[in-house]
Structure formats: structure tokens, C-alpha cells
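Hypothesis: this fold can be encoded by more than one sequence.
Test: take the C-alpha cells below, design a sequence, compare later.
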């Protein structure tokens, strides 16, 4: 289960490397938010070789196109639109790495990507048809990117409704679930001191509460592993723009997840 985190989604690459090196490969992939990109990449090539491809993607100058422009210029745009970034660079990046016509049927691992439907005020699972529109819908972070339109319906980031959809994996028959997401769930939250921190704290509180409910509701016989990221560093509102240090984040997450997995019973 791969969650979100903007450019910090590179942390999940380190976790994936640890899983592959431990001999753990996916039977099902569930993705939400930016984790939908990682999930699709792994589904297309579920081998250790995909790690190098993912590192190239997250360390690529292409990512600067996605989250480019100065912060002041972006903030001025809020006067005329609801989002900071143009989705076109992200779409082009995905086309280059996944191909423009990739279909769910072409994926080598069953993959489920979740987005939030605005019109229906409900979660929507993409499991068939074109993959790229599904990713754009699942990763349309409110305020960062505009809602994605698929068949006339508008979608935003899936983590709004299902930040850690463990139950989806369980419903699909999983008995062991590895949760890969950005954000240290073990780090205590503190009261916000600035307006933008209020929104961040509220979203993180909701995410943790929902994840706790998902784990608590897992039936007997289901094991849920929350892989550690090793500390992702900058957690400011602009951390998602930080394309530098990607390889360091991958290495740190790999080491933390490797140590965690080595302590688990076979």
C-alpha cells in the first residue's frame, strides 16, 4: 500500500528497495496520492530493476518542471486560480516513464488506485482502462494541482478519502500488508502556530486516525507492517518542492526499512 508525500514520495523507493532485497514482492498493489506513481511503476516492472528507474524519475530535472516557479509567483496565482502548478509537466513526465497508452491490463501486478470524486463526494477505485488518467486523478493534491477530469467527472487526491486503504487490500484477500507512506507516524503532533500549519496538522491528524481505524478493523490473521522512512527531514509546507537530496532520502528510508524487516519473523 503506497501513500502520498509529493517529492518526498522518493522515501517509498527506499522502502521498496528494502522489500525487494528481503525477497518480498507484491501480489497486489494499492496506491493513493503520489504513491500511485510508484505503484504503477512497480506494477509495470515488479523486479529490483524498477528501483533504479524510480530513482531516475524522482531525481530527474523533469520534476522541477512539475513543481517549478518561485514560491511568490505561485502564491500570486491563488488570486486567479485554485492551484499552484500546471498538471501538464506531470503528465508529460508520466508519459515518458510509463508510456502514453499504458492500460491496467498491461500491468504485471493487479493494481488499484484510489481518487476522490468531487461530484459523488466518494472514493473511486481505478482498476481498468488507461493508467495515466487514473494516476493524475489519484495524485491531484488540492491546492497543488487542479482536479483531474475523467469521463466528465472531477477527481482529487485519493488520500483525502483513503489515506491508508489497508481494508482495500484486505478485501482483495491480502493477509500481509506492507504500508509505505511519507510521514513519521511515531512523531508526536504539536499545536499549529501558523495558518498553513493548521491545515497540515488537521490533515495529518485525520490521516493517522483513519490509519489507526484501518489497522484496528483488520480481521484476525491479517498482519499490517508500517515501514519506517528513517526521518524525511524537511516537513515544511514547501518540502514537496525539494528535488535535491532524493538519493539521500532513498538511502535513509532503505536503511530504516531494512532494519525493520530484519527484525520480523519469517
Amino acid at each position: 500500500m503506497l501513500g502520498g508525500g509529493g517529492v518526498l514520495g522518493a522515501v517509498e523507493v527506499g522502502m521498496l528497495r528494502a522489500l525487494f532485497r528481503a525477497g518480498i514482492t507484491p501480489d497486489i498493489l494499492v496506491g493513493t496520492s503520489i504513491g500511485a506513481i510508484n505503484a504503477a511503476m512497480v506494477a509495470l516492472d515488479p523486479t529490483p530493476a524498477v528501483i533504479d528507474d524510480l530513482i531516475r524519475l524522482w531525481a530527474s530535472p523533469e520534476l522541477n518542471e512539475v513543481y517549478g516557479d518561485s514560491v511568490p509567483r505561485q502564491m500570486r496565482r491563488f488570486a486567479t486560480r485554485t492551484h499552484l502548478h500546471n498538471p501538464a509537466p506531470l503528465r508529460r513526465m508520466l508519459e515518458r516513464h510509463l508510456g502514453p497508452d499504458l492500460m491496467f491490463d498491461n500491468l504485471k501486478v493487479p493494481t488499484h488506485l484510489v481518487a476522490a470524486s468531487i461530484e459523488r463526494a466518494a472514493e473511486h477505485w481505478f482498476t481498468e482502462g488507461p493508467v495515466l488518467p487514473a494516476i493524475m486523478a489519484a495524485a491531484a493534491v488540492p491546492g497543488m494541482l487542479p482536479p483531474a477530469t475523467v469521463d466528465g467527472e472531477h477527481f482529487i487526491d485519493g488520500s483525502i478519502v483513503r489515506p491508508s486503504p489497508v481494508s482495500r487490500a484486505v478485501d482483495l484477500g491480502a493477509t500481509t500488508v506492507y504500508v509505505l507512506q511519507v510521514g513519521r507516524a511515531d512523531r508526536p503532533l504539536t499545536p499549529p502556530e501558523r495558518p498553513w500549519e493548521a491545515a497540515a496538522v488537521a490533515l495529518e491528524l485525520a490521516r493517522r486516525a483513519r490509519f489507526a481505524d484501518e489497522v484496528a478493523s483488520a480481521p484476525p490473521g491479517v498482519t499490517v507492517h508500517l515501514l519506517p522512512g528513517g526521518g524525511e527531514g524537511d516537513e515544511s509546507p514547501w518540502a514537496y518542492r525539494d528535488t535535491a537530496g532524493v538519493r539521500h532520502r532513498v538511502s535513509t528510508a532503505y536503511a530504516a526499512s531494512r532494519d525493520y524487516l530484519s527484525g520480523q519473523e519469517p
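The CA atoms of residues 27 and 94 lie 23 Å apart. Residues 236-240 have pLDDT under 50 and may be disordered.
Hypothesis status: open.
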